[in-house]
Design a protein that fits this description.
- It is a single chain.
- The chain has 67 residues and is mostly helical.
- Helix 1 packs antiparallel against helix 2.
- The model has no long low-confidence stretch (mean pLDDT 90).
Length: 67
């Protein structure tokens, strides 16, 4: 479950891979913590969602800079 943000590689190339890898690393730290399982799952989803959001912002910034 930690690796689902790595799907960004397919859509986002190097930027997606970097963000997905960072989210994966953070998710492994979250799952190694002593938090309750529900909190770990919620933080996992939030971490991946944040990576996707940052990727979208980066893509929009690059697209608007190219115009």
């Amino acid at each position: 479950m930690c690796g689902w943000p790595l799907l960004l590689v397919a859509f986002g190339g190097a930027i997606g891979g970097g963000l997905g890898g960072a989210a994966y690393g953070l998710n492994t730290v979250i799952y190694k913590s002593e938090l309750p399982l529900a909190a770990e799952v919620l933080l996992n989803l939030l971490t991946g969602g944040a990576a996707i959001g940052i990727w979208m912002l980066a893509a929009l910034a690059i697209q608007s800079a190219r115009k």
